[in-house]
Amino acid sequence: MTAIPRTAARNDRERTIRAGWMIGLGILLLILPRLIYPVLALDILAWGLFAVAFDLLFGFSGLLSFGHAAFWGGSAYVTAYLLSNGQSVPVAMLGGTLSALVLAVPIAYLSVRSAGIYFSMITLAFAQMVYFVALQWTDVTGGENGLQGFDRPSLFGLDFSDSVTRYYFCLAVFALGFYIAYRTVRSPFGQAQQAVRDNEQRAQSIGYNPVRFKFTAFLISAGLAGLAGSMYTFGHGVVSLDVTKWTTSGEVVMMTLLGGTTTLFGPAVGAGLVLLLRDQLTTSSLPVGIVTGLVFVVTVLFFRSGVVGTVQGWLRRR
Amino acid sequence: MTAQTRLAPPTGAAHNPTMALEARNLVKDFRGFRATNDVTLAIHEGEIHAIIGPNGAGKTTLFNLLSGFLKPTSGEVRLFGERIDTLPPHRIVRRGLSRSFQISSVFPTMTVRENLLVALQSRSALPGQFWTPLSRLEKLGPQADAILADVGLADSHARLAADLGHGEKRQLEIGISLTQDPRVLLLDEPTSGMGSEGVARVIALVRQVARGRTVVLVEHNMSVVSELADRITVLQYGALLASGSYEEVRKDPRVIEAYLGDEADE
After folding, report:
1. What is the ipTM of this complex?
2. Are strands A147-148 and A238-239 parallel, antiparallel or unpaired?
């Protein structure tokens, strides 16, 4: 046996590596609007939280949702709708998040009893329904035009017409969302959730009801995706039909795999990389889709555990 | 009089309190194939009961029926007199029946100790709490360490379950089942794929965990069966062929023909 013993010293090392990442990324996020233009930084926060939320279900429950655009987009629309009806920013964002949670209840209920491709298909089907509602219910959603021109009223003297102010407000929201994800994964619930993922039969035989843990994980994931969607609306000041499109569901899968699944913040790193790469490419003459696609292919083929997972592997072996 | 008729529960009688686990006229059909055919079986409280039979005799199907992983087509299963065949597996565990699996079934991404902690916490209110820090699980630490010592894995507590050797996984598997403090323990081929040294260790382990418990095991290794089992049930083609002590079953002409043939000729 060439088993590598995971000793207490190793656990300490893990903790050091994790702390190093957190501090490094924290500092990076604090100075990000100085490095790139603030609206792009806002996008990274929103998509980053979206990917972290997605991975709560994908990485930690083993369920590949292909319909997370429903929660991200649904919340983005509700947030925009509330803002255009004169609600304050916190109310609008909370409303968007709650709407994603409510939407997730029936979808989770009907999908978590299935596994593998069936689960993915059911979630995709529901997301497509949300997309068509957004397309056709033009009075509320604006149809193909989407919603724009809504106010983002100041809050406690914070002027949200300034994108840097919006960024730091969203950074606080991001930190809250990330903290919820972190606590969830590193809790007794998270352990049971991962036990169900690792070995469903075994989990059942020690008294766990798999459906219950998948259902709860789905709701937490969808709620955080909703929070991310409301951040996206708030950051941009417009909502377009794209937020509910199936390509959005696909994009978050790509970001998560690129960053590294089950590394918790890896998906956020993946989201940042995809958005930065895309931003660089749009000003060059290279075809955006082909290059991001190639990067994705190379990652999946040669760095299975994603950017963060691969780097962590190197750090552990050193 | 055969062993089977002697041990069958009296018809029409109320539940017999000394029976830990009973199957009554249990039938399981898979698309026209009868995997379990009218099995009536009584496991006494406190005994070690081995279920044997040739490959495809329906041993694992019977195990799955007893532990709720399969629902019977007809018939019933009773645990200490109460029907459990309508319950899902995670509820049956709560009633005091825990099982292991034929193929080592552990949580590979967790350490050995975490495997036991996650199993121990299922009986607490903790799993519902996604806001509780993981450190709270440490209150179950002493229990986990005690089980680790029992199954001989104390030195391997910090290793990933995926990195364990085959025999160690089997030990961990039994440890996980023990976390539920079961009154009835079902072990599916605990010695499969083990060398003689590992087999001896498992025999000692089963004997130890059987104290104060009822143990049912599926086993291919006849020396393990003869050494451990108080009574034996023989299955063939999904049906019960014989039930009784090792010596009784060994002398049963149908059993000799079906299964023990070669050994009896020696």
Report:
1. 0.79
2. antiparallel
